[in-house]
Design a protein that fits this description.
This protein is mostly helical. The protein has one domain: Up-down Bundle (Na+/H+ antiporter like fold), CATH 1.20.1530.20. The protein contains 16 helices and no strands. The mean pLDDT is about 85.
């Protein structure tokens, strides 16, 4: 009799789990459908008002999130959200890498390297100094805040430069910097965290070695997978998977990210380099048939758009207004210094000495304005809260403010500023 009851209890428990799993699946599917539907309408509106769609997605995300209409409620720490962030940011980076040209990068690589390494440290230090005096937080917490928001966000910048035609070398330099500086931002953040919590002291040598490892392994992984993908879809004799080229890009983006991540290198750097190789496959002696190339381009553009919709609507929906409101005025002042002082000083200090690129004043001024904060800094802030880092809630609060201010102020004014500075291309 007792065995029968136990069996009944186990059976009912499994049935309850099955029902809850089905309900969760339905809820997730409904939320995904809503996000796509809202995203299409939002993109149409953004196109009509001639504003980069990421800014409008962010605003709409805040409107449909749990703090407002409550139509979309996908938690920031859920597995679904993490999948969307990882794969979405990776695919957008791949798309950005595929749009770059090697001949342009040859002219500007010195600026890209300096601004993505030394530049991140300069931005972090200046922003941290501002946070210390404005918010009155301890120096280590202030520096941790500066490091968290110091790196630019490729998932934001790549779509903007896809929609606004800026002079090639300027656009490609900013996109490349955003792809390469996430590793530096993370290294500085966790180095300062170790010193702040007594888990160790910040070591310049070990940080440089770590950065070099992440960069070199990420680049090598991207090169290897990019060449292999080009071989399978565009080689004269070996392109037996040409008709599956769109699926190859999906598999290779995931493979490049996890291959680099498995060796403790930058997965984002690997997918970006993979995109560069595939986008410049003709330079390596590969060529696709016109029809197959067009089909691949259309697929990549559509997939990148879908990822953009999900990332920025969810990012808006997950903005914690209660947390942000605790430090709104001080945080806004810090972000203003970050945008108007730290970034311009960083760009001019890092780019002006580059005699090879010969940057004009207008080009450097434009690069000073385009440094949107988004997915990567938000993810770092979330990690700091999870690790109970000192001042984590203040850091998260200011990070939310930085995301909103940079995307809602800088993204919509990108085209206007480029026009005023004479950097728009037809």
């Amino acid at each position: 009799m007792q065995r029968t009851r136990r069996a009944d209890v186990r059976r009912s428990g499994k049935e309850a789990e099955g029902v809850s799993a089905i309900e969760l699946a339905k809820e997730t599917l409904l939320s995904s459908g809503l996000i796509l539907a809202i995203g299409i309408l939002t993109a149409f509106v953004a196109q009509k008002i001639r504003v980069p769609d990421v800014a409008v997605f962010l605003v709409v995300g805040m409107a449909v999130g749990p703090a407002a209409l409550g139509l979309v409620d996908i938690k920031a720490d859920s597995a679904l959200n993490q999948i969307i962030l990882l794969f979405g940011a990776s695919y957008i980076l791949f798309d950005g890498g595929a749009s770059l040209r090697l001949e342009v990068l040859k002219q500007t690589w010195i600026t890209i390297v300096v601004i993505a390494t030394v530049g991140v440290a300069i931005t972090a230090a200046l922003t941290g100094l501002a946070a210390h005096f404005i918010l009155g937080v301890p120096v280590m917490v202030a520096l941790l805040l500066g490091a968290t928001i110091a790196s630019t966000d490729p998932a934001t910048l790549v779509p903007i430069f896809r929609q606004v035609r800026i002079r090639d070398r300027v656009a490609q330099t900013v996109m490349s910097e955003s792809a390469f500086n996430d590793a530096m931002g993370a290294i500085i953040t966790f180095g300062i965290l170790a010193a702040a919590t007594g888990g160790g002291s910040f070591s310049l040598t070990s940080s440089l070695v770590d950065l070099l490892w992440q960069s070199v392994v990420g680049i090598l992984g991207g090169l290897a997978l990019g060449y292999l993908a080009a071989l399978l879809i565009a080689h004269e004799r070996w392109a037996f998977l040409a008709e599956y080229a769109p699926v190859i890009t999906l598999v290779a983006v995931i493979g490049a990210y996890f291959a680099a991540d498995g060796f403790h290198a930058s997965g984002f750097m690997a997918v970006f380099v993979f995109g560069i190789v595939l986008g410049n496959k003709d330079a390596f002696g590969f060529a696709m048939e016109a029809g197959e190339a067009q089909k691949l381009d259309e697929y990549v553009a559509t997939t990148a758009f879908i990822m953009r919709v999900f990332i920025f609507i969810l990012l808006g929906a997950q903005v914690d207004f209660a947390l942000m409101g605790q430090h709104v005025w001080g945080g806004a002042a810090v972000v203003a210094v970050f945008m108007l002082v730290a970034r311009p000083l960083t760009v001019f200090l890092c780019a002006a000495p580059d005699r090879r690129a010969k940057w004009s004043f207008n080009e450097m001024l434009f690069m000073s304005w385009t440094r949107e904060t988004g997915v990567i800094p938000a993810a770092l802030a979330g990690l700091l809260i999870g690790m109970k880092a000192p001042g984590a809630h203040i850091i998260a609060s200011v990070t939310f403010i930085a995301v909103l201010m940079t995307i809602l102020i800088q993204a919509p004014t990108t085209k206007w500023l480029a026009g005023r500075l004479g950097l728009l291309e037809k």
